User: What shape does this take?
Amino acid sequence: MKITYKTPIVEMQGDEMTRVLWDWIKELLIEPYVELNTEFYDLGLPNREATGDKVTVDAANAIRKYGVGVKCATITPNAQRVEEYNLSNMWLSPNGTIRAVLDGTVFRTPIMVDGVTPFIPSWTKPITIARHAYGDVYKNSELKVNKGGAKCSVKIEYADGSVQEKPIADFGTDESGIIQGIHNKDKSIASFARSCFNYALDTAQDVKFGAKDTISKTYDHNFKDIFQDIFDAEYKDKFASAGLNYEYSLIDDSVARVIRSDGGFIWALKNYDGDVMSDMVATAYGSLAMMTSVLVSPDGKYEYEAAHGTVTRHYYKHLKGEKTSTNPVATIFAWTGALAKRGETENNTKLVEFAKRLERACIMTIESGVMTGDLALLFKRDGVTIKTVTSREFLLAIKDAFDKM
Assistant: This one.
């Protein structure tokens, strides 16, 4: 008899090879065991074009309604993709749109396997990157200074007519250059802090936050102050009861401490820092295809997805009928994360146990020596012979391991 649950999960289909894997994962690993109850949204690029990207906003609002979503990887179009898909617009990143609607923070954690050793040997436990997903250079204004004799300043005009202005640079007579203006909002920073502290309590991990307040005495210092004020007022006692810690340090010192650590904590970072460090951490642990990713809003809405892209090269091989060995683990863990969270919200132990068993089956399959090509390049374990298989063969091997558990 299949496992059931009451409240729908928001299901968001995606693009290219991950779209193919999505359907196979459902067919082989989920639907034989779980009576799926989903509210479905097709976020594939053709449907985003057909709906003027309204489908993405609708999906995000559905997550606000139902509390849990699971998303396939999607294309964020560039100029080449506009031509390839004959698009009327260079549509925004679906992830960015959903983050904005939910006011959420992205948490990325490596999936650790015995046989795939991190490039930093001391990292024996996973490091979760918490990336603030608003502002900074991603919403900047930039100008090129084309000729000399220019002066630039930052200026704030208030509704009451008052003005604040501060000089940025005085370019010499013959000097050209560049300027950039970035911003953030106290509300967004506060949401980021609460999401980090809530997720820490949810997963029993310490929080480390790094910025550069000694140099950026207003911008970065504001992050530091908001984090500390919210922690002291709302979370200090909760952390103490849970045996958890929060600490702030300068970003350069934070990087040094992380490198020397054994992992096992949440590393909270501003938008750009998080963008860079999440890829560094993923690579150091092995592969982006072995990273979980969950967007958490400050009011407790969850959206699970794979941290990687749509695997375009494999998709075009697949269309030609060629065999591919694409790693589906992160997409499987997106599904298990969403199912486990739905199980938690409904006190449905059977659903939670199913999700955890499926995750163990994935790891057991790899540790037995059966894996996709990307992992075969990284895997080393005494006494284990590596067998490189196609994507579907890998899913069938996971199903076999799950059924034997």
Observations:
- The first helix runs from residue 16 to 30.
- The chain has 14 helices and 16 strands.
- The mean pLDDT is 94.
